[in-house]
From TrEMBL:
It comes from the Eukaryota. It is found in: Cytoplasm, Cytoskeleton. The chain crosses the membrane at residues 285-309, 316-339, 345-364. Gene3D superfamilies: 2.80.10.50. This is Fascin-like domain-containing protein. InterPro entries: Actin-crosslinking, Fascin, Fascin-like_dom. Keywords: Actin-binding, Cytoplasm, Cytoskeleton, Membrane, Transmembrane, Transmembrane helix. GO terms for cellular component: actin cytoskeleton; cell projection membrane; cytoplasm; filopodium; growth cone; lamellipodium; microvillus; ruffle. One of its GO terms (molecular function) is actin filament binding. Coiled coil: none annotated. One of its GO terms (biological process) is actin filament bundle assembly. Residues 20-133, 142-253 form the Fascin-like domain. It comes from Eptatretus burgeri.
């Protein structure tokens, strides 16, 4: 139940809701803890950590970076800067309805209570000692299957784990918090059932509870079975009976990054089909869905296409023409921040000019360098100008970035 991540996985942040529908809250003043929050805001967000060699103990960290603790008398505090103290060690017992019972590993008592009357002194779990888990994250994610190392995507009548790259809206899954459990919603607003079918209306068969496994998640259906990938297509359906989730039932939640379509003024879209950058297409296909990266530390933006691998901009040989050679020198001298974990085959970098009056986008293909493009921006006109294979002084029609 670690919040450590691998690859592009996210730290899992969540809120804990008691039977009175109030959130466990870590107050900023005095590091006090109560259960009085009516909605999930900063003070109600927690992360869960686990030592790799630990046999089940977890640690709850507040938004202040302090750890939740329970002493031998059941008193609750959240002022520990280190988790070495035995009072910070808890065990999570997931129930069939998805709720958690949180037990002190050191003292064997259960966390419960309401408002400012919290304690960890109950010898057995009851309704007051059960907590619902509400993820504190953007609900639209990409599901990465740990066992098959593939992403879930929407096919015609099912969700299947068969995508190498989470590209396009079909790879988008929405985790909808409903009746204190979760619905898995596809991009066309259908809901996944335990048997793998997709429906429009929520039912009990569409509700899943979350279990954290080493910083990743497993989905348990209303019958206690875990969601997993089945068959050669990797169809998502419940298969394994109650017990611990195995490698086939564990998923990594990854942030769904914004993707855009680059559209020229003639209504045609920039495409990377057959490793080329061009604007021949009107309809939106997977070939020209660009992933948009924006650096907050420099005036830099990168577009990435849907192919699997790419060299960084600095490793691309841009000596096809004097223009590209000159831009290559600018790249080296700027010492720009490069995104090293990009999966696609095309990148674009936003470069400031010496006059700071306009910017250049450099779109460079790893395989077809002659198809690289330069886009010139005029802030006064609030638009970008595209010049494919031409010097910046010769300007083509405007290029627009459109979210889908």
């Amino acid at each position: 139940m670690s919040c450590k991540t691998n690859g592009d996985g996210m730290k899992i942040h969540f809120g804990l809701i008691n039977g009175a529908n109030k959130y466990l809250t870590a107050e900023s003043f005095g590091f006090k803890v109560n259960a009085s929050g009516t909605s999930m805001k900063k003070k109600q967000i927690w992360t869960m950590e686990q030592e790799a060699e630990d046999g089940g103990a977890v640690f709850f960290k507040s938004h202040l970076g302090r750890y939740l603790a329970a002493d031998r008398n059941g008193n609750i505090s959240c002022d520990a800067e280190e988790r070495d103290d035995g009072d910070c060690r808890f065990v999570v017992q997931a129930q069939a309805d998805g709720k958690w019972a949180i037990q002190s590993q050191t003292h064997g008592r259960y966390l419960g209570g309401s408002e400012d009357r919290l304690s960890c002194f109950a010898q057995s779990m009851g309704p007051g000692e059960l907590w619902s888990v509400h993820l504190a994250m953007h609900p639209q994610v990409n599901l990465f299957h740990v066992g098959r190392k593939r992403y879930a995507q929407l096919l015609e009548h099912e969700l299947a784990v068969n995508a190498d790259v989470p590209w396009g809206v079909t790879s988008l899954v929405t985790l909808d918090f409903h009746e204190r459990r979760y619905l898995l919603k596809t991009s066309d607003n259908r809901l996944l059932l335990g048997d793998g079918s997709l429906v429009r209306e929520p039912t009990s068969e569409a509700l899943f509870t979350l279990e954290f496994v080493g910083g990743k998640v497993a989905f348990r259906d209303c019958q206690g079975r875990f969601l997993g990938a089945v068959g050669p297509r990797g169809s998502l359906k419940s298969s394994k009976a109650a017990g611990k989730a195995g490698k086939n039932e564990v998923f990594e939640l990854q942030e769904s990054r914004p993707q855009v379509v680059l559209r020229a003024s003639n209504g045609r879209n920039v495409s990377t089909k057959q490793s080329k950058v061009s604007t021949p297409f009107i309809h939106s296909f997977i070939h020209y869905f660009f992933l948009l990266f924006v650096s907050m530390m420099s005036p830099q933006c990168l577009f990435a296409c849907s192919f699997t691998f790419a060299a960084s901009i600095r490793s691309c040989c841009l000596s096809v023409s004097a223009l590209f050679c000159e831009i290559h020198i600018v790249l080296e001298s700027l010492n720009t921040i490069l995104f090293n974990k990009l999966p696609p085959n095309i990148q674009a970098c936003l470069l400031p000019s010496s006059t700071l009056l306009f910017f250049f986008f450099l779109l460079c293909s790893r395989n077809r360098l002659a198809e690289a493009a330069v886009i010139q921006s005029y802030p006064s006109l609030q638009c970008y100008k595209l010049a494919v294979g031409e010097p910046p002084s010769r300007v083509a029609p405007c290029l627009y970035a459109q979210y889908f």
